[in-house]
Amino acid sequence: VATEERLEVARLEAEGYSTVPVFVDDLFRFEQLPFDLDELPATFSKFRKAVEKKPSLLPDRPIDSRSMGGCIPSIWADPAEWKEALEIPLDPSIEVPTHGGAESASGHWKAYLDARALSHYKQTRNAFQGPMQSSHLSAWLAHGCISPRQIWWDTLQYEQDLEANESTYWLRFELLWREYFRWYSRASDWTLFRRTGPSDQVFGFDQNTRRFERWKTGHTDCDIVDAAMRELNQTGWMSNRARQLVASHLIYESNLDWRLGAAYFESQLVDFDVASNWGNWAYIAGVGPDPRGGRIFHLNDQADRYDPDGSYRRRWLS
User: Fold this and answer.
1) CATH code of the domain containing 202
2) What digits encode the pLDDT tens for the residues 36-93?
3) Which domain covers residue 252, as residue numbers?
């Protein structure tokens, strides 16, 4: 239960109602964790080691909803009444999935596994573009169209049937990052949204409107940042590496309050997730679960490494 839900629970209980928290999109149930919430490890590394060293600690197997029969009826008498209003023209070259629902999620995930892209996930996940450069599951995860437990168990089955390597493990590693941020946000409560985050660090970042406008519209002095922000504004998506780079630029190059970037991402991302978004921004800013005190990326070096031919920048800046 996160900040707003906790306030609602407190209100209901004050009125005499009893409540039972149900965690529906986590890997682990609260009672499975080898620590109490107020003893949550201060870093992801310690969290990962704590859950991985306990062989009995595995996510519950997901229930196949198809075996349950029936379906949830539509609330719309005539889909034609609303379908046209919801259709937004999209660039046909956009690689991020644009169709929601469990069937779309399962179909995409099956295609990803059938192509054996999982076997190369660790090597390709930082690429800026390409339909198989990452799993592209984040939007479906954020909207509850696919379960993280389903993904976890499918990767184990993949390893049993086809091959196991560092890449097949790494997708579970990233699911653990997602899981850590979910519990971290619950443990941090409202302090996650402070300028200092859950930490007591004090930084001189400001909220200069002109610099922020240049950053969010993709008109900075850095072409890789500009390309990524324009992709975000046109598609609601950017790669994980691009998110890290634009965050580093906003915080350390533009010297802006990290929460401006987190809030803007919240308004734009098709895969927005409160815990992952705000947790990652706090992490980059050095006010979250990072003992090293923030992550500063050398943007030109990153562009040369992950966009060596400049095709990504040309695509979004032309």
Assistant:
1) 1.10.579.10
2) 999 999 999 999 999 988 756 667 676 665 555 555 555 555 555 555 555 555 555 5
3) 194-317
pTM: 0.87
Q: Same domain for 125 and 203? A: no
Average pLDDT over residues 298-315: 97
| Domain identity same for 126 and 140 | yes
Note the pLDDT tens digit of each residue in 6-23: 888 889 999 999 888 776
Residues ≥6 apart with Cβ < 8 Å to 199: 286, 287, 288
Q: Using an 8 Å Cβ cutoff, are 254 and 225 in contact?
A: no
